[in-house]
Amino acid sequence: MSRMTVNDRPVQFDLDPEMPLVHALRDAMNLTGTKACGGDCVGACMVLVDGAALRSCRITLAEAEGRFITTIEGLSRDRSHPVQQAMVAEQAIQCGYCTPGIVIAAAALIQRNSSPSEAEIVEAIPNMCRCGVYPRLVRAVQRAGRVQQRRENISAAPPPGISTEDAARAVPALRPGRGMETSD
């Protein structure tokens, strides 16, 4: 039985201790924000393990035993984390597949260094983005650092047309008239 804390909740898995953490998070806990890399290990599976950004496809349940795990769902339910705010404000999100892993890696970086250089950002965020948001990503991480330092304020989330309550749900329900408005 593997025991750990996931998103501030103690959990135990009665699964093969050699199973990669990503599969336990996605399949047993339904925390699907952490993406499975499919063997490419592009960083979409990144989670915080005791505050460090690590690839959950490379960590077994046995290695995660007794540790504190934070997934994208546990970072901020209302999208108020500085990295989430800055990613939206800088339009550093394209298709979104790699975004959770990038946000996790960036959150770990600004936690230990809230004024990172471009080189430090590139080194700390090894995630691959096939959409090529890198210039905007660097700006977003630097902006998130300023927000973390309280030198700047952003109010970019939730997206227009989505209430804070709906944004905090794991899978927001689409309802007629909500989030589908058009402007003339």
UniProtKB/TrEMBL annotation:
[2Fe-2S]-binding domain location: 71-142
InterPro entries documented for this protein: 2Fe-2S-bd, 2Fe-2S-bd_dom_sf, 2Fe-2S_ferredoxin-like_sf, Beta-grasp_dom_sf, Diverse_Oxidoreductases
Transmembrane segments: none
Keywords for the protein's UniProt record, in alphabetical order: 2Fe-2S, Iron, Iron-sulfur, Metal-binding
Keyword Iron among record annotations: yes
GO MF entries: 2 iron, 2 sulfur cluster binding; metal ion binding; oxidoreductase activity
Entries under Pfam families matching the protein: Fer2_2 (PF01799)
Sequence segments annotated as region (Disordered): 149-184
PANTHER family referenced in this protein's UniProt entry, alphabetically: BLR6218 PROTEIN, OXIDOREDUCTASE WITH IRON-SULFUR SUBUNIT
Protein name: Isoquinoline 1-oxidoreductase
Organism for this UniProt entry: Erythrobacter litoralis
